[in-house]
Amino acid sequence: MPANQAPVRGLRSTRVLLLLPLIALLYFAGWNSAGNAAPPTVPSYDHIFFVVGENHSRTQVVGPAPYLTALANANAQSSTYFAVTHPSVNNYMALFSGQTYSSITDSCTVTATSCSTNAVNIADEVKASGRTARGYMETMPSTCYLTHGSGAYTERHNPFPYFNQIRTSSRCAAEDVPYTQLASDLSSTATTPNFAWITPNLMNDMHDGTVAQGDAWAKANFPTIFNSPAWKTQRSLLVFTTDEDDFTPVNNVPFIAVSSDGSTKTGGYVSTVHSTHYSW
To answer: 102 and 114 in contact (C-beta within 8 Å)?
Structure first.
């Protein structure tokens, strides 16, 4: 098996698609303080909101970022979750499709013949299962924006256009949209996608901005999700991680999971099960 491909791709079956990316994390969250195991069950969700920050390790976020730290400590988190490479773009590709690509780099421009792929990705499989997937990109000028970068928006933090079957079809305008559309989509459960990928802009994802800025963005924006009908009336999950750490060989990044039904409220449990961006 190629070194750049996940040994077990969690994207392969639609049964797995809308489950917690790190099932082990919630399994161990079922242990009580006395160490007694709850009956193992695989949680499923109507909606998953997946938020990706940038270039910070777990210890640079959990602890220094008050809001994100409070979410981590009140819910489910991992201390042994790892990005898979440096630099950015192939971590996004690993999260989105279960593998990395030698032909895709941070600096290349997407075209039909280079810097792109036809590989199956999570949006494909969500769609094939009869569900909906959508990416919300903060500060992206328009739907399906194909210029490599524009101000605080950059394509390398948006995996959708790198896949030809999305970029060259009507799916691109429907599935790759500016972040401003999220608020209206959250107005009802019917318009809230089953899988929502969220990329803050270069300041708010902590790439160019500070940890304090990223934390303030999360504090200002996560409640919009937490107060939505999808969160209040259905089973929903929010996951936060970063694409990579600050270029160390370790590449240990934060992983925080918050569920609408309270199943992630672990009372301070921190998973030590080794997991990576391939664990989706």
So the answer is: no
Whole-angstrom CA distances from 51 to 3, 63, 124, 189, 237 are 26, 19, 19, 19, 11
For 206-246, what is each residue's pLDDT tens digit? 999 999 999 999 999 999 999 999 999 999 999 999 999 99
Going by C-alpha positions, the residue among 1, 60, 48 that lies closest to residue 22 is 48
Q: What angle do CA 237, 274, 251 make, to 5 degrees?
A: 90
> pLDDT tens for residues 154-207?
999 999 999 999 999 999 999 999 999 999 999 999 999 999 999 999 999 999
CB 225 within 8 A of CB 234: no
> Which residues, 6 or more positions from 143, have their beta carbon under 8 angstroms from its beta carbon?
172, 173, 174, 176, 177, 178
| Dist CA 67 CA 62 (whole Å) | 9
Please give, one letter per residue, the 3-state secondary structure of 99-132: ECCCCCCCCCCCCCCCCCECCCCHHHHHHHCCCC
Place of tokens 């240990």: 252
Q: Phi, psi at residue 55, to the nearest 5°?
A: 55, 35
The residue ranges of DSSP E strands in the chain, in sequence order, are 47-53, 76-78, 81-82, 133-137, 149-150, 153-154, 176-178, 195-199, 236-242, 255-259, 270-271, 275-276
Q: Per residue in 242-257, pLDDT tens?
A: 999 999 999 999 999 9
